[in-house]
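Changelog entry: the NmrA-like domain-containing protein record was regenerated in this release. Current contents:
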Amino acid sequence: MAMAMPASPSPIRLDCSPLVSRFGAARTARRACVIRAGIESTSVSMSRQGLGPILLVGVTGGTGGSVVNGLLASGVDGSQLRVLTREPAGVAARNLAARGVQAVAGDLDDPRSLNEGLEGVQAIYCHATSKDAAKADPAGDVRAETLAKAAVSAGVKHIVYNSTGGGGHGISQVEQKHNIEKIFRDSGIPTTNLRATMFMEEFWKVYTRPQILKGRFPFSMPSDKPLQLVSVKDMGLAAGIALKEPEEYGGLSLELAGDELTPAQMCEAYSKAQGSNVSHFSPPKFLFWFLNRDLYRIAKFLSEKGYEADVADCRKRFPGLLTFSEFLELTHWGDASRNYADGFKY
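Regenerated structure tokens:
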């Protein structure tokens, strides 16, 4: 999940699900982003050479293709990847199959359906257990429990989970992500929690990009407050590296960011990418109180606290993480004929 703040105070149009788990701006004094998850005593026997099949969960949605791109860029072979999907003959599954990725039928709401997909699997990458929404979906926790139990039964040795930073602020989606971390940790399977900051892809969405292309960047935080950013593709890149190095990453929680810019600096990047001036506008936080309490808490978090990833450490651990300017260039930001709904592509 990752979200961008609304375009303007009236009307305010938001896809509440993504923003909640990816809002992010760093403190001036950041602390190290690596936290031991409390299962250091659990040994990880998997070697890099013996990685085996990897099951991908929750990657058939709008950002899933970018995650798979990142996994492949990390050096993971496409033939090792299995995508769990309710519709193995669907468009998303067929697109992934074109890159050598196998689609297997399975549904987290039906535990018995997971057996085939988990056969022989050594590791799991879990991107999501529920769809993006304005509030946390309780079914997401139940599905995580189902997945954890099935993984234990199948002898899975490592889980990499797409989590989020910013816990402890009462934002339902974020708190759910951290609860799912606990579910996986309590299963006894060494788990790597990649806690993403703001997904760069969020600014491509309909509630933000059209206004930016017109010269106004609506984002509810101070113009001089740093915002930490990471691309969805780089979530896959980091996950691939973690999956190949379970001895190092099993049991770690790592806040992930590839760049850090203030909204004013982001406007400079937008202006260069689209060839026209862009200025920042910060909608008043109190407006979100009436729209959605989670959105208000996000705006408060962005303005007063923010993410705490160590960007330099992340870039050292995961070579190739995109800067925001590189992301805008690779996605052809300035081409107004392209849009997120038609399929986001690099």
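The chain is about 35% helix and 15% strand.
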